[in-house]
Each structure stands twice: as structure tokens, then as C-alpha cells.
What we know:
Helices cover 37% and strands 28% of the residues. The protein contains 12 helices and 18 strands.
Amino acid sequence: xxxxxxxxxxxxxxxxxxxxxxxxxxxxxxxxxxxxxxxxxxxxxxxxxxxxxxxxxxxxxxxxxxxxxxxxxxxxxxxxxxxxxxxxxxxxxxxxxxxxxxxxxxxxxxxxxxxxxxxxxxxxxxxxxxxxxxxxxxxxxxxxxxxxxxxxxxxxxxxxxxxxxxxxxxxxxxxxxxxxxxxxxxxxxxxxxxxxxxxxxxxxxxxxxxxxxxxxxxxxxxxxxxxxxxxxxxxxxxxxxxxxxxxxxxxxxxxxxxxxxxxxxxxxxxxxxxxxxxxxxxxxxxxxxxxxxxxxxxxxxxxxxxxxxxxxxxxxxxxxxxxxxxxxxxxxxxxxxxxxxxxxxxxxxxxxxxxxxxxxxxxxxxxxxxxxxxxxxxxxxxxxxxxxxxxxxxxxxxxxxxxxxxxxxxxxxxxxxxxxxxxxxxxxxxxxxxxxxxxxxxxxxxxxxxxxxxxxxxxxxxxxxxxxxxxxxxxxxxxxx
Length: 481
């Protein structure tokens, strides 16, 4: 027994852990008598040592019967602390990865990488929580857990603030609501344990964390709101008639027509809808200058009111899509489509009018599943499933899922779908579009209801409409033959 070192067992701390020291140096700690025997064995003491032998063990302030640790409570707290940090790590990684890997702008990619970095910090904090809630072998483990809890509180606050703007049900809502409550509990537990005392400069530490949170909030606002709004967005359309030619064998006049769509802005653009129409217009001459008498009726119908024309009629000569939903244009890029319009030599038209209309969306606001959007669903075909409608067999439907380029928006709101409709008759057809949280059902189709939600979503995703038209005199065309 003379070779056995003299062991001092310190009084239990606030959690019930008792430090074990030899010669003034802490060599271990124990929650219970069995834990103390394990430390003693590591010091070379026999397994059957008598814990009441005062020659070997000195008990400070509390005897061998005082072990206030509650294992189930301690292990439950450890499990909760680690579970919250691990769940936070998974959420941050899920939110940040799409933006870091596929966002269009640098600021949006940086937001994604910040979330991934925050997730890595949460993983490190989960490991530190195991030590901090245990025997605390590492001095700064509590500070690392505190950083993880503060990051969780800041980010979950951003999630909740963003969710409150729309208050839409989403599968992620219970997760960040649970993590928000968990972060409050974790901070209460850590601050009650005064973990900041182990930090060399607690005021600088608090300032750094606050500035980091402010930077994250500003970066989110910049990438989600300011940058996609400040960059100019222009899609320019042109239409031009060419020199006509006479068909040598058939009674036709061939009139060349060129359409061009060009992105003259600073951001890429999706083309959701493009439509061209060519009309042949015939007018009835008024000798008594009565044309302007019906100017109200003309304005109501969208026609022109002319002094020397009492009535005018127009027929659709040609109609179709420029390219179709789902193609895109990078800044400075343009697409050209050349057509040849055929009109009879013995036509009664006074004017030919060509119109090109395009609906475009900023690519820095959202990403569309183009494989879905480019697929046409005729409503008259039964194989189209929910798109089939026997009573509305005049409709062709395009639909594609859309996600915002800032993934925080996606996880705080319901999924969005861009829907494009082509409808009409043999003589005339039109189109409509909407970005909505509801999947389209033609049997419930109402044009006003369909476009009602569209105004807000158009602003959010940067959707704009453009059109251009050109008229040419048929008499001038015939004279040039």
C-alpha cells in the first residue's frame, strides 16, 4: 500500500461530477463509485481497493456516499443537445447544397456555401456537445456548442420570418419550428451553465457572432431581393416583311416575314410563351368621313378608329409559336424565325399586319423543369390523365415545376408551377399563363381565377410580357412584284 498513490476526490460540481487528482494534478473524474474505480485502476490501484481507506483516498467535503448525478437526466440532455445540432446540420446542408451547386449568381452561390459551412459547424458542435455534457476534457467545447446554438437561433429565425410572409403549409415548417424551440432551450441551458467564462474574450466573441448573423441576413436579402431586382432585364422583339414574290404555278403571292427575339438585358431569360399572328385586313371607305363616329366601339374592341374607314375586318392568315415554351436566351443572344406568308393574288386585303408576343421570365429568380414545361398535353386526349377534359377539347397545356433560386424561399413555401395554356377556335386562338401553387385541372378552368394569383407571382419571379407589330400595304407589295 505504500506504493499506492494518494488520491483526492473533489466535491461534486453542479452536475454531480467529482474530479480525481493526485499530487495536485487532475487525473480524471467520475460520476459514480464504479467510475472512480475505473480511474483508480488506470493509476495502478487494485480492483478490490477499499474506497473507505483514508490512507489511499481522501474525500473532500463530501464522503463516498455522495454521488448526486442523475444518469438518465444527463444522458437525455446530451441526446437532445446532439439531436438538435445534428438535425440543424442536415437542414443547413439540404438548404445550402442546391444554391451552392446550381445558383445563377455569385451572391446566391455564396449564400449556399454559407449554409453548408454552418452545417459543418453544427456537426462539430454536436461532437463538442458530447464532451461538454460529459466530462469536459476540452476547455472550449461549451463555447463551440454555444456557437452552434446561436447559429441555429439566427437561421431558424430567418426561416420563420420568411414563412410568416406567406404562411403556407410546407413539410419543412415543423422542422425549423422545432429547431427554433430547441435553440432557445439550448441557449438557456448553456447560459445557465455560464459557458462564456471559458471564452478568453467573451465580448469580442459575442460581437463576432452578432456580426456573422447580420452578415448572413444581409447576404440573404441581397441575393434574394436586391440583386435579382437591380440587374436590368430586357427582351427585344422585331418583325419585318420582306420583298414578295409571285408563285409561277399557283395563284399565290409569297411574302417573306422575319421575326427576331433578342435578350438585350444583363440576365438570362426563359421564354414561357411566344406567339405570332398574321392578319389580312380589309376596310370599307367612307366618303363622308364618318369613321371616327364609332371611336368608342373601336377602342372597346381594340381596333383602330380612322376618319375615312367606317368598318374594317381582319382575318387570320397565319398563326403559330415562335419556338414554344421552355427555351432560354443568354444576355446578347437572339433567335430568328423566317416565314413565308402565302396570300392569294386576288385577295381583298388592304393591309397585312404581323404581331409577335412573348412572355419572358428572369432566370436569376427561378429555375424551371424544362423537360416538364416543353411537353404538350392536349386536353382532348384521354391518355393525358388529369389534363384530359372532354368538354374543353380546345386546349393545349404546358406545365413545369419551378423553384426559386434562393432555396430559403423554396423550403418556406409550397411548390410553384408555371402553367401555359393555348386555347381558341379555328379562326382565332389565344394564350394564358400563370405561376401558382396549385396544379392545373382543365375541368376546373376559369380564365379569371387562373390569372388572379399570377400578379404576385409574376413580380416574384420577374415575369414580363413583350409584343411588337408591323403593318404593310398590300398595294405596295403588289406594286413591287
